[in-house]
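User:
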Amino acid sequence: MSHIVQIQTEIRDPAAISAACDRLRLPEPVFGETKLFTSSATGWAVQLPEWRYPIVCDVATGKVDFDNYGGRWGEQRHLAQYMQSYAVEKTKIESRKRGHSVTEQQLADGSIKVVVQVGGAA
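Assistant: Predicted structure:
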């Protein structure tokens, strides 16, 4: 039996943050206080392609702080791509912890189909 699930992503797992960076070939995330344009944020800083300032993932709240000046300092699609990659990597980590197998397929529209086989080998 298959099920369709919609997910609202909260960034709460440092391992999945790092895995998403690896997946997208981004620099390794760095933990600490990071300066944004007129403020700063503490958490895991991730440098997206061509973004002036990194995004900062606060695993305590699940929120992501960023300043891309309405798209002038970084394209929103890069953030969306990172969030998608985080969700896929987190799904894989949690599924494999439970002994399930995971496959994924890149779809023509840019989305990713993730299939979790309950009880399958990792």
